[in-house]
## 1
Amino acid sequence: MLHVMPLGDAVEHVSDDDCVCGPTAKMIKAEDGSVVWLMIHHSLDGREITEGHQGES
Ligand SMILES: [Zn+2]
């Protein structure tokens, strides 16, 4: 499984599906019919999720 992580994020991501950001699995189907799963990690620096910690503003 491929992991897509935000660069320079405020939190440290791990290449696992139990990462702190709660990554979302996304299925990509290639032209030859093969299926690739992407694990999309979410930025926790405030762009998407505001739960947990605040205080930058
Ligand atoms: Zn993550």
## 2
Amino acid sequence: MSFIEIHKVDKSFGKKRVISNLSLWVEKNELLGILGPSGCGKTTLLRLIAGFEVPDRGEIRIDGDCVYSSSNGIFVPPEKRNIGMVFQDLALWPHMTVREHIDFVLGSRNIKSKEKIEEILELVDLKSLSESYPEQLSGGEKQRVAIARALAQEPRVLLLDEPLSNLDQILRKDFKGEITKLRKKFGITTIYVTHNYLELIDIADKIAIMRKGRIIQFGRSKEVYQSPKNNFVRNILGK
Ligand SMILES: Nc1ncnc2c1ncn2[C@@H]1O[C@H](COP(=O)(O)OP(=O)(O)O)[C@@H](O)[C@H]1O
Ligand SMILES: [Mg+2]
């Protein structure tokens, strides 16, 4: 049994099929990279896993718990799945400081959660900016707030939706180190979605190539990179 199991999931919006008979699995503490062009359904897939969208068919399991099953009529809402998601547009709250973003997620005001806030601020290097509002932060700093917020609840799973799309090249390099550091510290099962294969090099354990709502190749990063199945995969791997 894998930590995340997605089994034969379909999702349409109106008449448009966006996810087609899609199956994928992720082992505990692994990082799965999902690589596919814009519009292929990457964000929709993450939203289905997090519970922000309801599939039409199939099954999704996390750590042995069924969170969605069409045949058994199961749907667990997002707040009960304990999944941390970093959205493509980051979705920070303009009226809240950095500290308040984390505070809001932790929800309680006891000493333990105060310590936790300090620990997380330290970890993502935002201590000196804890009283700043999003509009006062750079792209990289906003990014770190979004990640800190996602990690604050100690989620079972971390979903990253094109996390680098708002960053410049230099910060992109730092981000890999950051993600590796955080994952070492938290040991968290992660799905990282992008259209740029460069972002996945050195950090993804496995890669799934997605096209028009389907997975067309899935395997260890090295294997996928060394033996792309067809021209589409070769292209998206920059070969
Ligand atoms: N809520 C929605 N209603 C209708 N169509 C949607 C909705 N969300 C996504 N889509 C469509 O589904 C397709 C896949 O979108 P998306 O999952 O955002 O792709 P990606 O993240 O890979 O760019 C697109 O054609 C998009 O327009
Ligand atoms: Mg997207």
